[in-house]
Every structure is written in structure tokens, then in C-alpha cells.
Amino acid sequence: MYHAPVVLNDVRLLLKLILAIVLTCILAACASPAPTDSPTQPALPSLTAEPPTATAQPASSLALDGLPQTVSPFGFPQIGYENAPISVGMFLAFDDPDSAAVFAQSFPTLIERAHGGEILITTVPLLNNAGAADARGAARAALCAGEQNEFYAYAGQVFEWLSQFGIEGLAGSRLIEGINSLALNRGAWDECMISGRPDAVLEEAARLWENLTYNDATPVITVNEVSSPFDPESLNFTIDRQLAEFNANLDTLLEATPEVTEIIVPIDPLTGDRVQPPLLIGLPEGWATGYETLLLQDLDAIRTVPFAVYTGPVTGGTGTIILLWAFPNVIAATDSPNAQTDLWLDGLRLLRLAVVEAGCNIGTDLRDESLTIGGLAAVGTTFAAVDCPDNLPDIRGWFAGLRQYGLNYVFYMFTDPIDAMDTAQDELQAILDTVQFIAPPSPSPTPPIVQEMTTEATP
């Protein structure tokens, strides 16, 4: 009789048993020692108050659905929208009842602000007691759950157990039961647990904690790098103050950019000069191309700016790419003698001057340096223009600027209708990925006034 399948099943069961033993070991006594405590510094006055004593928030009640979960460059879990104007840091220890109480009382408030697009939360996982192997296992388990976007749900469970049972509540068997309650790929989680990835994150967290000015005791919550009291009322106050400062700075920047409606130019805004930009771009079937030169009243003078328009069908509507190029930079007002040109500021100014109709309600997000054009790094942000005059359609998209071969370029991408951007963004980016810049011929097509004002920069 052929028994090979039975033997194979026995081997699989044996491997599962060995893996379960190894994981239990990792989660408990076999965990590597935690980083030693660092010398402490005096805490700020705002952190001397007693932490809240609320019962830990059950993981199931946290409103996490719909919020993006990512990791920072150092591997710290993050939740919220990456372009949120306010950054909140939570320094929490997995063997600290006070951290559990703060998580219970304040994290739901922060999540509510994250849903509103106001804050991005970054959690730095710490360990206070070098001998707390169970807590280290809990931290490692949570970080591995975070690789599948379940860090915060699992951390909520851990802090609930810590509040109810103390450090003994983090026994390896309970930690595994908690993992099994989540919709995780167990194979991927098991692989993470026997790797060194979670240990590397914990070591980086310990290093960051040692260099923190106010590291007297966990927990610590920061709002835009400034420490804040823990209670929800104080956190809301601190976030509101930072938002007001952000909005004031943005209003100042936008007010410094002249509105087209404030300028009367008694000449045709199009010169009739059709200059093709020095680049190659791959357009899908059905797309059309046009070239022109704008006559704009800029910050200091009337000048010509060449532009190109690419438009065609995308999923859900019509996509448009507008390219402005060979324009001079505007240096932000600053007292520094080393002020640098900034294509993000140029993109904002030209968005209002040349791309969006005067009278539209324009909104923009934070500076984004992760953008690319033709595989090259670019800087820009997302924007929307709504409530435009003359029944013009609302638009939403993004712009990206860069400098190549001594010339400035800013690409503006948007769709009509506005909802088409939900599905067409990747299609528009795919077009941008095909861009190849070529050195402009001599003499340059840049108008003389632009040549005189454009500063030299390395391509």
C-alpha cells in the first residue's frame, strides 16, 4: 500500500509544530534583550501631569477603516494621509501601563482628526524594561502585523491586555491568539517573526528615544515636533493651533502671488508663436497636441512663456496635461543670502496665473518631493479648482516641476470630470514616465527676457 501522502502530511504537521514552538519562544523567553535604558533628561512642564487612567480602548472599536496605513523610512507604523499638514508622533512603550492608558483615551481623538485629513500619525514603539521579554514579543508581533496594515488594530489589543492583566497579560499564547483573530496572511507574519526586521525597527526606535530632548518617561506625544499634553482636549487645542499657523502661512504665500483679475493687459494673451518644447513624450491613441506662447503679467513684468497642451481620453473622461517651460524662477522672500530657486513656488504661482481660470476657488496640498517626470525627481503638489465662473467644469489633479538642461518645466495634470482622476491618475503618470528631455538647440527657443532672468543651475 502506498503511504507517501500520509508521510508528507506528517512532515507538514511536524513543521507546523516546530514553527509554533519557535514563534512561542520568540514571543516569550527566547526574545533578544531589549535596548538598555538611556540617561534621562528633565521632562517639559507639559509632560509632568499624571497620565490618564482610562481603560484601554478595545481594538474592535477603533475607526481605522479607510485610513491609509504605511511605514516611515525607519519602519515606524503610520496611519493617515501622507499629505496631511500636521505630523503627530506617539512614543509608546509596550510594557508601560501609562502608554496603554494614553492610547485608550487619546488615540480615538487622533484617529478622528486623521479621518479629516488633518494629521498623519507616526508611532515609535518602545520598551522600558530590558527584562520584559513578553513585551518585546508583543512589540515584534505588532510590527509584523503592521507589514499587513494591522499594527494599530493589534496594538489596541496589546494595550487592552496590558491594562487588564499587567505584563503577565502579554504571554506568548495570548499574543498568538490575537494574531489569529486578525485577517492576516499567517505565512507572511511567521516569516516576519523569525526575521530581524522587527528588531531593527525597535533598535531604531530606542536610538531615536535616546536623542529625544524630553525622554524622561513614556508616553510622549508630539505635534509637529513639539511636545503636547496627552488628554484629548489639549491635543485638539495643539492641533488646531498648528493648523491655524499652517493656513496663515499658506494664505500669505497665495496672497503674495498676483491674481490675473487684478491686472489689465491691453494685448492678446497669445502671441501666436508655436514653439515645441525640447522633449519627447509618448501619447496614447486619440490624444491631441497643441503649442502656443502665453503673454503673462508676472510678478515683476510682462513676459512670454511657451506652453504645450496634451489632451485625450482617459478612463472616466478626458485627461489634460499642460506644460509651461522656459520661465524664470521666483526666489521666495527670505533673509538668507543663500536663497535657492524653488519650482514648487513657481508651480503655485503659474497655477493661478496661467492654468486655472481667474475666479475659481483653488485649493492645494503640501509640498511633495516624491513626484517624477520621465523617471527624474520632481517637486509639486495636488490641487483642485472648483466653483469656477462661466460654468467651467471643476478640475482636480497635480503639478510637478523640475529643471533640465538649464530650463524650467512644470507639468499640470487634471481631468474632466473631476471624479475621473480617481481612475485616471495612473494613466496620466504613465504618460509622464515616457518623457525624454533633449538639449535645446542653439540659439535657445527661450525668449530673450527669460534668458536674462533665468539663473544657471545644474541639469
Superfamily (CATH H level) name of the largest domain: Glutaredoxin
Mean pLDDT: 76
The structural class is alpha+beta
Q: Determine Rg (CA atoms, Å).
A: 28 Å
Whole-number total of structural domains: 2
Number of strands: 16
What is the CATH topology classification name of the largest domain? Glutaredoxin
Biggest sheet architecture: 8 strands, antiparallel
Structure overview:
The protein is of the alpha+beta class and 459 residues long. The protein folds into two domains: 22-250, Glutaredoxin (3-Layer(aba) Sandwich), CATH 3.40.30; 260-453, Protein Transport Mog1p, Chain A, CATH 3.40.1000. It contains eleven helices and 16 strands. The chain has helices at 4-27, 97-115, 133-146, 151-165, 172-180, 186-193, 197-210, 232-255, 343-355, 421-432, 448-453, and strands at residues 69-71, 77-80, 86-93, 119-126, 220-223, 226-228, 279-280, 288-297, 302-314, 317-325, 361-364, 368-373, 376-386, 395-404, 407-416, 436-437. The strands form three sheets. Strands 8, 9, 10, 11, 12, 13, 14 and 15 form an eight-stranded antiparallel sheet that branches. A six-stranded mixed sheet has the order 1-2-4-3-5-6, with helices on both faces. Helix 1 (4-27) crosses helix 5 and helix 3 runs antiparallel to helix 4 (151-165). The longest helix has 24 residues, at 4-27. It is elongated. The chain starts with a helix and ends in a 6-residue tail after the last helix. Mean pLDDT is 76; it is low at 1-19, 28-60, 256-268, 331-340 and 441-459.
Spell out the blueprint of helices and strands.
Elements: H1 4-27, E1 69-71, E2 77-80, E3 86-93, H2 97-115, E4 119-126, H3 133-146, H4 151-165, H5 172-180, H6 186-193, H7 197-210, E5 220-223, E6 226-228, H8 232-255, E7 279-280, E8 288-297, E9 302-314, E10 317-325, H9 343-355, E11 361-364, E12 368-373, E13 376-386, E14 395-404, E15 407-416, H10 421-432, E16 436-437, H11 448-453
Parallel strand pairs: 3-4
Antiparallel strand pairs: 1-2, 2-4, 3-5, 5-6, 7-16, 8-9, 9-10, 10-15, 11-13, 12-13, 13-14, 14-15
Helix pairs in contact: 1-5, 2-4, 3-4, 3-5, 3-6, 3-7
